[in-house]
Amino acid sequence: MSLDPAALRKGITRAERKQWWLSFSGVAVTLILTVGILSFSVTVYVLKSTLFEEMNFHAATRSLVGMVLLFSVYVIYQQWQIHRFRMHLLAQEELFRLIGENAVDMIAVVTVDGRRLYNSPSYQRVLGYSREELEQGSSYEQIHPDDIPAVKAAAKEAAETGVGRCLEYRVRHKNGEWRVLESTASAVRDSGGNVEKLVIVNRDVTERRALEQQLVLSQRLEAVGKLSGGVAHDFNNLLGVIIGYTEALQDSIPPGDALREPVDEISKAGQRAATLTQQLLAFSRKQVLEPKILDLNAIILDMEKMLRRLIGEDITLKFEVHRDIGKVKADRGQLEQVVMNLAVNARDAMARGGELRIETTDGELTDKDVRRYRYVVPGRYIILSVSDTGVGMDAETQSHIFEPFFTTKEKGKGTGLGLATVYGIIKQSGGYIWVDSEPGKGTTFRVFLPFAAGAVEETSTEKPHAQRCDSVRTILVVEDEHSLRKLTRTMLDKVGYRVLEAADASEAIKIAADTSLHIDLLLTDVIMPGMSGGDLATKLSPERPEMRILFMSGYTDGAIEAKGNLKPGLVVLRKPFARETLLRAVEDALSKAAPTIANRDRESDPKSTTSQLVAN
Ligand SMILES: Nc1ncnc2c1ncn2[C@@H]1O[C@H](COP(=O)(O)OP(=O)(O)OP(=O)(O)O)[C@@H](O)[C@H]1O
Ligand SMILES: [Mg+2]
Distance from the CA of 134 to the center of ligand 2, in angstroms? Predict the structure, then answer.
């Protein structure tokens, strides 16, 4: 069955022509029959002749009947032809209806001056308007005013050239929302070759565009994160040296000495710089986290006093914490940092006062959210919202806020690291952060953290400084950064530890093999050229089961980065560290009973690899 419209049109014309011919021949046959009947009547009634006897009456009757029969056959044949074309037409119409009703795309036929002739039913599905509602108005009615000139120009071009180009524009959904349509027009010409109508196919690309935007944003953040993470890592080591030696100088210069003040200033600047690099490391998700199962509500309520002080009196602080929302697994200090940064931003956005609302609840991310935000993992989440009634942000600002050093605050007021830090922490904890804001209408940040099963774990509280151990303990320090190694050695030497130094894992293995000393502690960097600290620990532990292990790192390796967590029980000393922190960590490690890392690991998973040792 050919459904080519041109062929169909030709066939119908032919059938019509035949139908006309049929009607004419019908009239002619009727006339001949009438003449025949008349001639009989005239002969019989008027002339009363004996013509019947002379004529071959039977032959005349047969030819008349034959003619009538032929005519009837022709009529039936013709009727059948017409029926066939009608069936073709019906099939064509049915196909057209099916396409119109089932196409996801919206199909419209409009006149050159914009009058709607046809709108497919998908218009109602996608934009909410019924066919009648659409046909009442002009086709430009629902288009965003800013996009009308471009749409008109494209329609004009299509009408003039007969070739439509692809165009994107915004159309208002019946519920008021703006949808982005991608549209292609093709021209329909009349018999004179002039463009008579335009057939427009519109596709709703709102979700696709949103996803693309998210992808661009996350790629940009990823790239900036890599760069800043790398820089921060190197800075961290240098700062460790600066801070360490400044502390040593502070110890040897008595208060009141002329040199004491400059040294104190160097120390303060070093600490400030260390805070900055920590923020950058947080953004690039290279922080060493100590995730524990936490009650978010308890943390928020614990912070209440501090938050009230922070935001001042002209801002009303409201808490809405829902009970029994479940627990999250995160680093407590980092989570507090998130709440604080969001609250400080909210305060800054409400210079003339307003309301800061902090809410916790639980919720679900479903497949629908996955379609909207491609990277979302569906499941149960704990939601923290921080809303303000401040100045709000436009879309352009919103697309940059998580970038490090992006700030709209005047010089000296903001570093632009607040939200970058928040972003890094949330990502590293397996969560998401979304912002809703409009200029003049306030801002809401919503943080989704994955629900964690289990009981709340005690958060580590700073222990009072323990007494130094008198007996001489031996520590094997493995660190590739020369000055940091030297500094660590000096710090440990000073309080009476015996220190063995190695620049990398292979040197450490050699020292351990050669020495007859009992090594009490392996203090090793995690990331080093060649063998990693984790591998080194696995290698040495079986030979020295009594040896404790303490990792130090300012940076985490790929495995930690991937999971963002550390195996519970593994101690990692964050770099840069002050002397007190180092000594406390060393003492803690030494005072622990010595289930070595290797034994501990073997207990939990006999096949575990070194990277799992350090990470997870
Ligand atoms: N609640 C908010 N309301 C309006 N704008 C906001 C809000 N939160 C963030 N912003 C915008 O995002 C920008 C970046 O915020 P971010 O916290 O990263 O840096 P900052 O606050 O400028 O500096 P800092 O490093 O001191 O936090 C701000 O400069 C501001 O323009
Ligand atoms: Mg900020």
Answer: 47
**Cis peptide, bond prior to residue 545, ω within 30 of zero:** no
- Tell me, in angstroms, the distance from the centre of ligand 2 to residue 279's CA: 12
Q: What is the pLDDT of residue 49?
A: 57
> Are the beta carbons of 11 and 88 closer than 8 angstroms?
yes
Output the residue whose Cα is nearest ligand 1's atom 12: 401
- Strand ranges, E, within 479-613: 498-502, 521-525, 548-553, 572-574
Could you identify the atom of ligand 1 that is nearest to the CA of residue 407?
Answer: 29
Mean pLDDT of 9-22: 75
Q: Which residues line ligand 1 (CB under 6 A)?
A: 341, 345-346, 349, 388, 390-393, 397, 401, 406-409, 414-420, 443
pLDDT at 450: 94
Listed residue (145, 116, 146) closest to 132, CA to CA: 116
Q: Which amino acid is at 54?
A: E
Count H helices, E strands: the chain?
21, 17
Q: pLDDT value at position 555?
A: 61
**Who surrounds ion ligand 2 at CB < 5 A?**
345, 418
Range of the domain at 478: 474-614
Q: What is the pTM of this model?
A: 0.59
Q: Which atom of ligand 1 is nearest to the CA of 386?
A: 1
- Taking the centre of ligand 1 as the mean of its atom positions, its distance from the CA of residue 402, in whole angstroms, is 9
Could you report the per-residue pLDDT of 421-456, keeping only the tens digit for each? 899 889 888 899 999 999 999 999 999 999 998 888
pLDDT of residue 147: 92
Distance CA 295, CA 290 (A): 15
Query: What percent of the chain has pLDDT above 90?
Result: 23
459 domain-assigned = no
- Asked whether residue 70 falls in the same domain as residue 44, the answer is yes
For residue 239, the CA-to-ligand 1 centroid distance in Å is 27
> 562 and 495 in one domain?
yes
- If one counts the domains in the chain, the total is 5
What pLDDT digit, counting tens, does each position of 526-578 carry?
Answer: 888 888 888 888 888 888 888 888 988 876 544 444 433 345 456 678 888 88
Give the pLDDT of residue 448. Answer: 95
Query: Looking at 402, 417, 452, which one is the last position of a domain?
Result: 452
Cα(463) to centroid(ligand 1), Å? 35
Q: Does 445 share its domain with 397?
A: yes
